[in-house]
Amino acid sequence: MSKWWRWKVLFLICLLTSGWSLVASAQPPDFVSLAAKLKPAVVNISTAKMVTSTNPFLRGPNVPGETDPFQEFFDRFFRDAPQSPHKARSLGSGFIISADGYILTNDHVVEGADEIKVKLSDGREFTAEVRGLDAKLDLALVKIDAGGELPFARLGESDDIKVGEWVMAIGNPFGLEQTVTVGIVSAKGRVIGAGPYDDFIQTDASINPGNSGGPLFNIHGEVIGINTAIVAGGQGIGFAIPVNMAKQIIPQLRDEGHVTRGWLGVTVQALNKELADSFGLESTHGALINEITNGSPADKAGLQRGDIILSYDGRQIDELNDLPRLVAATPVDKTVDLTIFRDGKERTVKVTIGKLAEGDQAVASGDRASGVTVGITAANLTPELVKRFSLEGGEGILITKIAPDSPAAAANLRVGDLIVEVDGKTINTVEDFEKIIGKMPEGKVLRLLIQRKATLLYTTLTLE
Questions:
Q1: Less CB within 10 Å around the terminal CB: N or C of the chain?
Q2: Mean per-residue pLDDT for 323-334?
């Protein structure tokens, strides 16, 4: 065989081999073996607590988001009936994370329970003790004593998952123990309004009431999420907390029983193109500070209203919600570098992070801004207006009228809003406002700082 033919044969072998590899890699994982391996680490959780009801027609648990159309009738009819205590029961899921019996689940599965029972895949049942709760992330750590080592699930890296990857959920939907469902990662970084640190993994692996607290596995058998929420009435839409968020707080839940988070002390909003242009910033990435709490770490570090936070502790702020999660995960008293944009330049500010008080947020988010045009009537503040609109401590001029069908109305400017600044200049009177407007050409985009009730927000106004 000539040298040329030998090369052709080798090329064909390589082509066929690589083609077979591509076909083989496209095959689904061996879910049978995966399920058999993982199910022993997944548990079913049942809880009970004493509640008092005047309604003898007690209902079982509903699917979240559903209501009973006859409940109001029963409530009215039996309003004066004697109260009768009874046990309310609920079901959920969880998974063992250590051989000595620590189990991770959702806060809403066990919160307020008088009794928690954990059932293993082999049928054994144990009474569990709550070791730590975190309502903000909706996570809970419970403990059982099984008298020996238990199989446990390995925690993976949720930051590494990609949209389209295979995933498997195991749980207790509708009380159907050890149910296995499979699907893919449908999306990442979902914000669904469940809490201040939303960053959910969306999956089409079937998740239903009772799956809460159960694991979402990757094809390597590692937990990459904790199944937590569904869309009421939706199909193929479930949400899981990324396991990396849980890994950050598990030691605190185990050792302290609660979570201590970092606090910056600012209110921020997202940038749109008009706002970014008004500040001279080319990108809409970052978090715009519209309010700073007096005496907060941000205040002590010299941060100012109108600063744009571009990065935090070396991590770029791509989306508004990146900042609250990063701040919350920062140890108290740690000094971090913030890259901010101020007066057309980037600069670095060092901030020593404080401790988040109960009920506060690491970083509060304001409404997202929308571009607006002229279509308002404003008035100087008077004692009568201050009293009428409850504006104690307010500064600026008051919007008293918005033209119907105007861009201002469409942009959601409201009667009662205070215009505090225009392009960084303080507005004390209507004359101040008109003087600035009168010097600007048609089409000029102005940056407004408004106060709406107790919240300060930036928005834009385009002159016509």
A1: N
A2: 92
